[in-house]
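Entry 14: structure prediction run for Xaa-Pro dipeptidyl-peptidase-like domain-containing protein. Input pasted below.
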Amino acid sequence: MILRKFVAYLYYVGCVILGIGIVGKMLIHFPLYCERRMKKLLFTIALASIGASVSAQNINGTWSGELNAGFQKIKVVLNLSDDGKCTLDSPDQGAYGIAATTNFVSADSINVSIASLNASYSARLQNGELKGTFTQNGFKLPLSLKPSEKAELRRPQNPQPPYPYETEEVTFQNTKAGATLAGTLTIPAGGSKYVLLMVTGSGAQNRDEEVFGHKPFAVIADRLARAGIATLRYDDRATGKSVGGMDPNVTTLDFAADAEAGIQWLRSQKQFKKVGLIGHSEGGTIAFMLAAQKKLNFIVSLAGTSVKGDSVLLAQTKAMAGPQVKDLTIEQLRQMPEMQNPWVKWFIDYDPQNDIAKIKCPVMALNGSKDLQVIASQNLPALRRTLPKNKRNIIKEYEGLNHLFQHCKTGMPTEYATIEETFSEEVINDIIAWIKRL
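Run finished. Output tokens:
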């Protein structure tokens, strides 16, 4: 019972199901997150649009501090403008600006509630600091903020013109689901015999797989196009310019069907000789699923899972929470109420080994040694054991890279937004070289 309460605590302060879509996206958005398939990763707090008059004399400006969420600290930035508007950012989690209601505000005090998150923040100005309490679902955490300068995110890998390739806005249909998927087809000058469908990780993501201020799919598509390789990246269903297909009972199978529709559309264009798929996290797992159905000429899996979902969840929870949950078992995880969501239930029961054993096309499967969401030492050996032999297969672990394929210190999700690198250039170069040898 004590262990289960500890795991529940981690869930509420921002960790328990990270990564492939389950753990720790944001404690507060978990119900909606499950419906939208739980995107790559993490705790998010947000306040925005505080529509009340705040005294510029004492409170306005930018304030920052750290929320101590048990085993990790999360940076929080509160921005108060002269007109009384406010935003609260969590840079570590890439979270910015969700509406809140001001219950009370004065020259030296503030109290804000966020009904959709069942959360509130109350603070008083003391000795130049806002000192108060962040409360959510009965959990109270101290949060003190000091005056600071608002930091600008640097993302030096974001594509910059001139672009030596063409881009085209396209749509394709998943008729059965009633979904129209919108995306960007990127074609090198002079065309390409290769094209890859790009499939994002779990959660509602746009075509760039934009997360924490990073746009990894935009970076990869740009680099591939400059090397003569075409791509199609698309907004997830009911996200960005994609419409339809929303259902609270969706699972990875439904998102695999969206990807299959994208593959069919690419083949219908008749301009590409080899159609492949590059997928990250859940997208990597979808790559295995579609390759098993002989839908593809080749696949690239970026941190896709190779073992049963409950084992993935247990390993990532222990990797991030450490010795506090060393005795946690799969059975205990399965008993948690959060595990009853349709997406989660499918995930923890799905065993990729059955699909992997059927794959005949060339496979490139990559992981980082510091990935705490899809553990390389757990997943890559399982893939090597089961994947049918093919001299063109590559299974590789990169030293020092996290789940987003960034060079990092700890691998914790709280680092993602603080790292300027979006995606390892070494990995991109290896992908390009491998595809050109096919």
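Notes: Confidence is low (pLDDT under 50) at residues 1-57. Will compare against the previous run tomorrow.
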